[in-house]
Amino acid sequence: MAIADVKEYTHLTPEEVEQIGRELDQIRADIEESRGAADAAYINRLIMVQRGLAAAGRVTIGYGSWSRRGRVPALVAGSAMLGLAKILENMEIGHNVMHGQWDWMNDPEIHSSNWEWDTAQPAEQWKHSHNYVHHQFTNVLGYDNDIGYGILRMAREQKWSPANLGQPVYNALLATLFQWGVALHDLDIERIRRREKDPKELKRQLRQLWRKVRRQAAKDYLIYPALGGQGWRHTIAANAAANLTRNLWSYVIIFCGHFPDGAVHFTEEEIQDETREEWYLRQILGAANFQGGPLLHILSGNLGFQIEHHLYPDLPSNRYAEISGRVRALCDKYDIPYTTGPLHRQYGQALRTIIKLSLPNHLTSRDDPAPPERADTSDRPAQHRRRRSDAERPPRRIELGGWSLQPDRSGDSDHQEV
Amino acid sequence: MDPDPRRFDELSRDAELGVPVPFACVSAREVDPRRVPQCALSRVCGICGAGLGRPLAFVGSPEEAARNAFHFPPAHLACAEALLAAYDGVEAAVLGQQKPLGSWAVVTTAGFEFVRPSRGQVDARPTFQPNSLLEERRVR
Fold it and tell me: Shortest Cα distance from B105 to chain A (angstroms)?
């Protein structure tokens, strides 16, 4: 079985799949060809705005902490500006810079090798857990640790346990403490619990994490409050509010990327011997967009174009809107599902899935409103939820892809009857 | 694979050739296909396994340099130079090459594209395509 056996694609001939690959390659080539000064100006301007907001926020919070007159409005305004700055830094700047989207500029600072973002997780660990594990194994059960982040059951194929009854509570905690949840993501708590993690590597990661956490905490809860003098408590509260705002916003945006209805999960067999064309198809079906204006897209790191981001994670994010028109037209042309909707609806669907899957499968319906599930795999025996270590992830074959192994798969009725 | 950065002088030695085995390889001869996307996406050095810096260096055959498509993952420039010095005089096909090389190309760049293999491609290995070349030189 390969990705092309997924029911959403079985109407495509191998030639069509190849043609889709060529057309998606062409989109990449066109953007690479045209990327230049205007793109560089965009990211430089955005960083300037973000730093201006952060400075203005800190100064306004400082004023609110020192002065009794106008304290409340100053703290609220300062906290809002700082929260906005943190959102921009994490979403549109940090996340995208660390994907290498701006490496081509050869800027000494705006480069995936050098950028360290304003959140608790060290950049190096993010690049492993997100850029590699999540983007390479997008929505593959047992491989992609972003499916529920190890604490939420997000697919019917995942085994239910009584602990899942607490999902609504875990979800609220995850949203509130999102930065800290992300910080622990690459440690792979499950492998630590099973004592499978290399102690030397764990020690190195913990040291790295401790240094970053110490720095982040010192900045927001020690140094700036100390500058606030007697009003230090107000500074701490305003900084905590800014961090909370960023946490909640990032959580909502990230949960809209892969959990709304229509975003499909895949199995290990489906990614074996995957070619570039098949990889493209998996990215389209595994991701979900949301609609909105330019400001919403900037504030969400252009992750409202999650499909385009997964197809081209290293192309500049400011070009995703332009790319999305072409990708959508391609999907329409070949009758490939393209999942999108307003932000509130996408998040509502993700939230409904979290609540629904806190219960065992037999207590919840599989019909409308449907959680993101694959009708052709959800009846299989539940998979163990154990996360795979990197060593267990499959190597790419060096021979031709799965196409050469299953020349007659189009006649495989088991895969078509869904 | 888990990140496992090591200093160059701490890399394990190849049992057959006695040279250091890079992070991205299973032996001096063979590249580990699981490490290739990891290095590309995690943006770690294919030789020492630590986070990349600037510039990025690609090591390969002169033909790979001419095609602007390398098979060995990006590396620190210092790691690339140390590796080629350590491999100097080795008369074998190493680092995923299909034949022994008379000279190596070292290309430095600010960025690269990671290109997965397409169906029907004769050489079905992913490639790295530098997108902002800084320097290219030959090492014998």
Answer: 21
Q: Is residue B2 part of a domain?
A: no
Structural domain harbouring B26: 8-139
**pLDDT higher than 70, residue A366:** no
With respect to residue A58, please indicate whether it lies within any of the assigned structural domains. Answer: no
Residue B123 lies in a domain: yes
pTM: 0.88
Is B117–A276 a contact, with Cβ atoms under 8 angstroms apart?
A: yes
Burial of A396 (0-12, 13-18, 19+ CB in 10 A): buried
Q: Give the total number of structural domains in chain A.
A: 1
Contact A136 B1 (CB under 8 A): no
DSSP A269: G
A337: domain range?
Answer: 1-34+120-418
Question: Does B114 contact A398 at a Cβ distance shorter than 8 Å?
Answer: no
Q: What are phi and psi of A194, to 5 degrees?
A: -85, 5
Complex prediction ipTM:
0.93
Q: Which residues of B touch A104 (CB under 8 A)?
A: 110-111, 131-132
Closest CA to A361 of A170, A161, A147: A161
Is the residue at B1 inside a domain? no
**For residue B3, is it within any domain?**
no
**H-helix segments, A335-404:** 343-356
Specify the number of domains making up chain B. Answer: 1
Per-residue model confidence (pLDDT) at position A416:
30
